[in-house]
Design brief:
single chain, Glutaredoxin, about 20% strand, elongated, 7-stranded mixed sheet, about 300 residues, 5-stranded antiparallel sheet, 2 domains
């Protein structure tokens, strides 16, 4: 199956923020260039972006699928294809991490440079500065200018111990503390004092506190566990309801989501991470306008 013209038209719109994009056809597939520099390929209506050690962090929350016959590409996340800002951000980082090659026979230094080469250097320098600022500037500053770290999260609905319904989208405008766990996880059990401390600290602030269990037997096992441990914070049933991006690689998993719905960080926390989590929540709260307390 080859790539359709409709796909190329869609990708052209999705890559609107990338300068001077061209698609070079090759036997039904396409190589994608920005100002003459290859940064992606299209195969069977799917976009694959070049990766490098410097850009691997951008792909940690997406499924790693390489371009056929290649090991240094990653399939573009479906969310990026409808978000020119995100796709443009990834493409610019990719271009910044792959500097243009030196002209054959050119000296390492000295001498005059053609105007075109100077133009390339300026573009690369701008991309490099942009990349550096992405990792150096505080999260609140980046968010204020419309740059969000991580991928956009998908909505889902869960039910609490008392039948209360909750959708992730109801947390819009607030940071989300999404904690996915199982009752048979010793690590999750060891984390109970930390969860209680965090809930006490943030229950009256603009944070959506969302502990979701994926234990299959919610009505019996989870209710019994919550009663035996005298859990004061809400517990929601997420078994079979969570999107794939939230299915835990291990239990428990913590997902910190900013007020605009972008995944900020994800890892398996331990009881020693109270200070780290508090600091990250403080950063997220710093980017939220004052308002009424959240859940």
């Amino acid at each position: 199956m080859s790539t359709s013209k409709k796909t190329i038209e869609t990708l052209s719109k999705a890559l609107a923020l990338v300068p001077e994009v061209t698609f070079l056809p090759t036997m039904g597939e396409y190589s994608v260039y920005s100002r003459g520099r290859l940064f992606a390929m299209v195969c069977d209506d799917e976009l694959f972006i070049k990766i490098s050690p410097e850009t691997l962090c951008l792909f940690r929350d997406v499924e790693m699928r390489a371009f056929p016959g290649s090991i240094n590409t990653c399939k573009a996340d479906a969310e990026w294809l409808v978000d020119p800002e995100k796709l443009g951000e990834v493409a610019l980082y990719t271009l910044a991490s792959h500097p243009p090659p030196r002209r054959p026979g050119a000296a390492p230094g000295g001498g005059s440079r053609p105007a075109a080469e100077n133009g390339w250097l300026k573009v690369f320098a701008a991309c490099a500065v942009f990349t550096a600022l992405y990792f150096i500037l505080p999260y609140g500053v980046l968010s204020a200018i419309g740059i969000h770290k991580g991928s956009r999260v998908k909505d889902f609905a869960v039910t609490g111990l008392h039948g209360e319904k909750m959708r992730l989208s109801e947390c819009s405008g607030k940071p989300v503390f999404l904690y996915v766990w199982e009752t048979n996880s010793q690590r999750a059990i060891d984390n109970l004092p930390m969860l209680e401390a965090l809930y006490d600290s943030y229950k009256d602030k603009q944070v959506c506190f969302l502990p979701v269990t994926v234990t299959a037997d919610f009505n019996c096992a989870v209710r019994t566990f919550a009663a035996a441990k005298s859990l004061e914070y809400p517990v929601y049933n997420g078994a079979g309801l969570l999107p794939a991006q939230f299915l835990p690689r291990q239990s428990p998993m913590l997902y910190l989501i900013d007020q605009k719905g972008y995944l900020r960080d994800s890892y398996s926390p331990s009881g020693n991470d109270l200070g780290k989590i508090s600091s990250e929540l403080g950063d997220l709260l710093g980017a939220v306008p004052p308002g009424p307390a959240g859940r």
